[in-house]
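Readers of this paper often ask what the protein records in our data store actually look like. This encoding replaces a full spatial description with a residue-level series of whole-number codes. For reference, a complete record is included directly beneath this paragraph.
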Amino acid sequence: MRTHCPISAALLLSCLACGSVDPGAEGEVDVFDLQELDEYRSAIPAPERLEVTTGGVTPERMGLTERGDAELAALAIDSAVKVNSPARAMVGLLRAIVKLSPTRHDVEERKFVWGPFPNDDGHGQVLVFIQENEEGADFRYSYAFVRVPMNAKEGDGTPVIWGAATPDPDGEDRGVGLTLWDFTANHEYEKAHDPAYRAIAARDQGRFAQVYGRFAEGDGDVTFNVAVFRDFKPKDSPRTDEPA
């Protein structure tokens, strides 16, 4: 399964090679400390946090056989591979961007913004933000990967990856959160803003979401990871395939 990210790997590598991005428009930036920034960055989950465990040659608690020849195990492994591919792509893209110095820090909105960057793998620009939510919200932080038309205001963008999380300060592999990759929104953005839009072009379709968590309870840990596909179909799948 391949997934299409609306920002190219070459752009990310060039940004990372530079070491940082200008921290403020026209030299104006709110002061922040690195610890605060790292706390915001922790809202983006590690790739392994979203991955479903696949079977190996050793016995597994989930009932996989030592030889790996159980039919149910084979089906589980196939499903895990399909889940892990978009999950790794989602968070890998976000984490690569937020490793950069933020472009803007808004104290009043409690928000860090990276970008907008030119999108050399599609129309317009892209940006990422992480924002601390109001007290009493379901999650402490919200974040999004946003596609922005050229010469448009930040608020006019279309989120195509978004999520929320409450990290656990005791460890990166703990906490709760959700992440959504909205290929439908991405398609609608291209239809509305891309002058080279072609309706017959192959595109990823639908939505893919995960809700996940890991926390201590009693003498052990509780872990859950639920992946949901809604009318999902990768662009390289046969035309005869039904959406997941």
About this structure: The beta strands are 104-106, 111-118, 125-132, 141-148, 158-168, 171-182, 205-217, 220-233. The CA atoms of residues 54 and 76 lie 8 Å apart. The radius of gyration is 19 Å. Residues 1-29 have pLDDT under 50 and may be disordered.
